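Marked as duplicate of an earlier ticket. Keeping the data here for the record.
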Amino acid sequence: MSVGFHTPWEKSCPTVFVVKNIALNKKRVRVFNYPIPYGLTRDLMEIDYVSEADIRHSLLKGELKIKLLEKEIIVVDSNIDLLQFDECQKAFLESVGITKGLEVPSGLNDIPFLFRQGIYLIGVQDNHNRIFTTPDKFIQGPLGGNIFKILIRHNGRDLVEGIEYIVSEGGGAGTGYDTIIFISLTPKPNSVIVADYVVKNTSV
């Protein structure tokens, strides 16, 4: 179960991600550990411990992607942010019923930020080094009416900022965030460490 942020709070906005059980053998399907009987639907955003980030991650390489590919479920309604720059992933999402939230609507191409997903951190992985950097300066705070924070994954698991890592401006205050300092782990040579973050859109 991918519940990286584990924020047990009922949603207060009309954000939905509804899936329907269409399993050929008419079996009950479990998604995020929640049972969905055959033929019925479930809004995953109503599960108090599931966030948009959990759904995005699961669609990329988790149980949602597996169950969609195996045609156990289909998406019947979604308005969460699934902005895609990868045409292959976008095509997959469209094929399973997702049509909204995949691209910036016409006329909004001047947004002041861009998404970076699955970016490998830079640094020596030798069981000792704890300091890594990103290839870009990322936004850690407000921009364009939004609050952004970097998300770090270690071997597929979302890490918790302030407990497992902290962020820093490598060149000093005001130079921009580009540094990750691990607190509770020292990456091994075979560790897979990637980050999702937002950068300023310099073309605007």
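See parent ticket for discussion. DSSP finds three helices and 14 strands in the chain.
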